[in-house]
Design a protein that fits this description.
368 residues; mainly alpha; two-stranded antiparallel sheet; 2 strands; flat
Amino acid sequence: MVFLLHDAFIVPFQLLDPPGLLLYDVGKVCNACFWSADAFVSACTGVYINGQLSMNRRHIMKTYCRTWLLFDIVVITLDWLSIIFLSRSTSSFWMRLFRGVRFVRLARLVKFETMFHKYFEMGNAPSELVLLVQVFLYVGGMILFTHLLACVWYAIGLSSDKGWVHEYVPDADLWYGYFTSFHWALSCFHGTMEVAPQTTGERCFAVVIVSCALVFVSWLQSSMTNLMMQLKHIKRDFVEKSSRLRTNFSERGVTAALATSVNKCIADQRRHTLKLEIDVALLKVLPESLLMDLHAEVRVPLLMNCCYLSRLRDLHPRRIRAICHEPMNETLVHSGDVVFVEGDACRQMYFIDKGKLQYQVQDENEEP
């Protein structure tokens, strides 16, 4: 991700003709080495086919060839050519050519979105976290797009002796000119700016950007509003349930001490990050075989604490898979709850996944 952000900032910034820096040259070499290694790793990384992970080399290469292989070859080749030729050549033509070609590298930002979706598809992050990350992605995407727009606007101003750069940045201060351009780019979406186009090319570019900004701002605003409404809906559902619970307690005359205990238990459950399988609606649409694989992967490590079941797994692994799927179910126990007491009939076994249980044995002549 660091190298993706590096490309997103450095590639457009080259339009401003910044002075050469040793750190920048080292960054180019590190960037090229990383993406060269990434192409090799991508050719060895398993892929999902019809929901199943495949480590077959033929399937991996077939998927890689259909997606990023050609793009990676072209971009990596251009990266190394630019490092080799620009270090030996002082021709302004070749410098402008390779700087223009480098914009192809920005297509790698599509990988960032793919990585984001794959991570949250494979992970177990809470819904609130996913929505918040999406909000930050929208904000970050807007900042990167504004940076790209600012660099292009600055380059257009430098291309003419009558451009806005010569009018508003007389001392040719690079950073002052960049932030002035960034300010102008932000004003295209909202607000005003004292910088005005000075040439026909700048005026045409400004008209196109402002026209596109109408659509872009509408889309961004609707997307952000939708995410905020989802966050609000998650919280509103809990608030409404809490209100109905308090009304029920008031109508039935529940004592304050008991109501406090119930509310503390509910608050503890809400803070608990573990979600039971019965609460996940999407798991109900899985086919039987895939659901059995899921249960086996999650529950077999728990059963191995029992020596009898561990031995049974060695002799009949398919039977253990069926045990994990059919008779087992999940339950959530909160602090202070009583699971069973002495004298209760034994109808089931308990396997502790997280936390611990405390046994209390009461002697006839002693307190528990």
